[in-house]
Amino acid sequence: MDRRISKGSLVILGTRTRVLDIAIEYEFLGTTPDKIVDAQPHLTLPQVHDALFFYYEHREELDMEIRERKEKIEGMRNQIQFL
Fold first, then answer.
1. Closest C-alpha to 33, from 15, 53, 14, 13
2. 31 is in which domain, residue-wise?
3. Which of 6, 51, 68, 74 is packed most tightly, with the most Cβ within 10 A?
4. Per-residue pLDDT tens digits for 44-79
5. Cα(13)–Cα(60) distance, rounded to whole angstroms?
């Protein structure tokens, strides 16, 4: 993993792909690692597995970030509905 960040999140080394995005695709959308690589050919299967390993090692922290982002999006949707 690259300690540099993209939009506040850890990215996969040599890419702009956030670990969080890989975790969401796998954990919440049910996308297999092979399908993630098919959809994002700049990634290798070992990179995806490394990202998932990192996610599981830091699951509590990353799940909290996912919840915060979801709440922010829902808040923005509610604001748009009032316009």
1. 53
2. 2-82
3. 51
4. 999 999 999 999 999 999 999 889 888 988 888 888
5. 22
Residue-averaged pLDDT of the chain = 89
Looking at per-residue confidence, does 2 or 37 come out higher?
37
Q: What is the CATH number of the domain that holds 15?
A: 1.10.10.10
Report the alpha-carbon distance of residue 63 to residue 81 in Å, rounded.
27
Largest CA distance in the chain: 45
Alpha-helical runs (H) found in 1-83: 19-23, 33-39, 45-57, 59-82
Compute the distance between CA of residue 34 and CA of residue 60 in angstroms, rounded to an integer: 25
The token pair at 32 is 């297999």
Number of domains in the chain: 1
